[in-house]
Amino acid sequence: MSDGIPARHRAKGDLEEMRRLFLNEGLTLQQVAERMGVSRQAVHSRFTRAGIPTRRPDVVSLEVLNDTRRMYEDEGFSIERIARHFGIKILLARKRLARAGAVIHKSRRPIFTFDRDLMYALYIKERLSLAGVSERLGVSQNVVIRELRLHGIKQRPRYVKIRIDRDELYKLYVVDGFDQPSTARLLGVSTATLRRELKRHGIEFRHKGGKKRRHG
Predict the structure, then answer these.
(1) What is the CATH number of the domain that holds 173?
(2) Do 209 and 176 sit in the same domain of this protein?
(3) Domain span at residue 172?
(4) In terms of C-beta density within 10 A (0-12 exposed, 13-18 middle, 19 or more buried), how is residue 154 classed?
(5) How far apart are CA 178 and CA 194, in angstroms?
(6) Residue 17 gets which letter from DSSP?
(7) Does a structural domain hold residue 40?
(8) pLDDT in tens, 101-154
(9) 55 located within any domain
């Protein structure tokens, strides 16, 4: 009893608040955990012991189910696209289609989640990594890899040695006098890559007391 309230009563109050946040306010387990200052596993364990379901039932109107079926059967939407449209997971979209009486078929033709121009622009033109593309599109890296394959866009090797032009490197590091971290930042590479390229081009490393660029 640190505040005059028995621990068992305080714990019961915490559980009721967790239940309210999860069932009434619609927060996720992670959001409940952050609100209560505990781990997600702690919330899950408390709910399990108290017999509180940790998954909410998917309560949707008949109109939504009919719209889902219409999008799939009449408009030709893929399940992935339907999931994105409603902001739900693909598995839940499949369950809603089944509840709506739709016959889920396996299409012989590839179903593209994103068009080729978008994938090409992000991966080839902007040179985003798989992780970068997945973050931009809000999908997993596996989906990104699948889309690249379906569109015939060759996946880059995971590890590619970056080559820096000697003249550009010499100007920044020797002529302008930037230190190694600043030069690496300006070139968009790591310090380790910068040092490797300095060695490759035969440009000597400067000591800490070497020339530095003045600012202002």
Answers:
(1) 1.10.10
(2) yes
(3) 161-216
(4) exposed
(5) 12
(6) H
(7) yes
(8) 988 876 544 555 788 898 999 888 887 778 778 877 877 788 888 889 888 998
(9) no
Return the closest-CA partner of residue 42 out of 9, 2, 15, 12: 15
Provide φ and ψ at 8, rounded to 5°. Answer: -65, -35
In a domain, 16, yes or no: yes
pLDDT digits (tens, 9 = 90+) for 169-178: 999 999 988 8
The pLDDT of residue 22 is 82
Instruction: Determine what percent of the chain is predicted with pLDDT higher than 70.
Output: 80
pLDDT for residue 84: 83
Q: Are residues 204 and 174 in the same domain?
A: yes
Alpha carbon 126 to chain centroid distance?
Answer: 17
Q: Which helix (H) or strand (E) holds 110?
A: none
> Is residue 87 a part of any domain in this protein?
yes
Number of domains in the chain: 4
Q: Where is average pLDDT lowest: 8-17, 154-163, 167-176?
A: 8-17
Kindly state whether residues 146 and 165 are assigned to the same domain: no
Q: What is the pLDDT of residue 2?
A: 45
The structure tokens listed for 49 are 């012991």
- C-alpha–C-alpha distance, residues 131 and 134, integer Å: 5
Report, in this order, helix, strand and coil percent for the chain, each rounded to 5.
55, 0, 45
